[in-house]
Please model this.
Amino acid sequence: MEALDQLLMACHCQSINLFVESFLKMVAKLLESEKPNLQILGTNSFVKFANIEEDTPSYHRSYDFFVSRFSEMCHSSHDDMEIKTKIRMSGIKGLQGVVRKTVNDELQANIWDPQHMDKIVPSLLFNLQHIEEAESRSPSPLQAPEKEKENPAELAERCLRELLGRAAFGNIKNAIKPVLIHLDNHSLWEPKVFAIRCFKIIMYSIQPQHSHLVIQQLLSHLDANSRSAATVRAGIVEVLSEAAVIAATGSVGPTVLEMFNTLLRQLRLSIDYALTGSYDGAISLGTKIIKEHEERMFQEAVIKTIGSFASTLPTYQRSEVILFIMSKVPLPSLHHPMETGRTGENRNRLTQIMLLKSLLQVSTGFHCNNMMSALPSNFLDRLLSTALMEDAEIRLFVLEILISFIDRHGNRHKFSTISTLSDISVLKLKVDKCSRQDTVFMKKHSQQLYRHIYLSCKEETNIQRHYEALYSLLALVSIELANEEVVVDLIRLVLAVQDVAQVNEENLPVYNRCALYALGAAYLNLISQLTAVPAFCQHTHEVIETRKKEAPYMLPEDVFVERPRLSQNLDGVVIELLFRQSKISEVLGGSGYNSDRLCLPYIPQLTDEDRLSKRKSIGETISLQVEVESRNSPEKEERVPAEEITYETLKKAIVDSVAVEEQERERRRQVVEKFQKAPFEEIAAHCGARASLLQSKLNQIFEITIRPPPSPSGTITAAYGQPQNHSIPVYEMKFPDLCVY
Model:
């Protein structure tokens, strides 16, 4: 072999093909030997041959035997640990030599064929996996001596990186498929540590423009394992999460929506599995509890993956993802029918919660300067419609999603606790002037937003977290999107919430009423200091100080704590404990705010969502307050009295409309009969009278609108000695000679 090696190294490139066949036969004989030393010797000779670059390819040379034999050596199970390690390392080096010799030569045997990849890739992964287990019992490589650093795992990783780095676009699939099969066969998805390491090696080794091919392979594998155990699917999803984050730095391309579509589909399947307790739809009570727990873990893994991948996307792609997820949320509307029955309601609720969780993950950290782009109409309508649902958890998610979108300067955490600070400068708020785009957004959507905040405050099932979210939302709107008009409307809104707690038409519990009082106090304390109107700040401070002395249960410091201190009697609250609309209107009107608008009590607008809401039965009387405001003058707006519509008025309107239709039908019958039976002279006289009446009306209109200028001849004196212009026809006017041509 030494002689052959020397001949090989001395051989010229032009004549190497004449010698190689004999050389490879000799190497094959050594590899077939049972003696480890001869196997290692043959491998070393093959590696030397592999490093020689040939000018002329060989069309008939085959490496099938060497791939099979080197792969077998990679799985060596020799009794002697040292010899086993040497044989495995020789096998890895041999595979590396085969790859180098064939990968760049299209006329050679195609090493990317599945028959070769199915041997090479699992052999490398086997050595990586084996050392993973050994490393847990041995010191880290940094602590090991220099000579011990070279081991099969490091060599296998280096070989795998080299293999993947040489893979062209069409070969990626054949290289990745054996990895997935190996992880399946050895149940390596559940610990997921090794699987994540493998795909990190893959993602960092392949060319960036091929990243989306790996993502597609993982997505297809997830679909293929949709009936596997939840722990297996969770492992695949977490690997997908790691791979997607790395791929996002390169080129993800058209796989963005495909990835989210697959994940959302798996989320819906998981919900079905959790409800039925089995993968085929049959109910199996014996394993339902275990599967529910596992499915919940899988669902959390999917939501985490959605969030981690979305955080790496540019703004325009994240906006598309947000709209895509929102379009999948089942809503009680005419265009999105929901499933009926108890099972259907459970499925709808779980789907809504999971998708809103996903949406919250995507919206976290989302910054868009233009709110019209961040919250387009079709998205905002669907999102706010979920804010009216009875489920408290769903409503909370909607509030948190809105907060994530509106908070563009990182002020959210500063309002996590509701309080009445005497000086808000300690919060160190980041405030920018409201942009023109924000002003346009609020003009278009403000009433819709106020309405949902108002209705959310009236919910009986609200808990402390809901009021904290409502406070954060009000505060962030005041900081991010507020001009003078928005500030006025927000103050009206909060005063209306105070009226809800005071009048209590909704029969709210004591805690909810105290919470609404406290919410109003905290917000008005904040907005008064933001507007910096001294009289407004003074009024707010006086009411808060009075509450501290006489009614601490109306302040957030006593309400929003672990053990709230409440009052059992909230009826007959004295006016000194309330924020007065007339007083606030007076002090803000003196500072240039629209006092006329401030005097108007806030009444939410009627929309189609009231008709689609399930909160009230058909037989109940629904009282709808319609507020129509005049838009003619921006300085002064006149309020049209609200019209109360009840069951009785609706019934009367229906009856009256029937009577009117009967009268109209009778009148038409009489007209037709008259024209059929009356004499011609009578019909002509009737039509002539109508024509003369029309002509007289036209003459009156012309006389009013087309009045000629006064006569140059002078003016005449009317009664009481006042001069009055005399209007004469144009053709009778006298013009000076200079005007005649």
In short: The first strand starts at residue 624 and ends at 626. Confidence is low (pLDDT under 50) at residues 135-149, 611-642, 709-726.
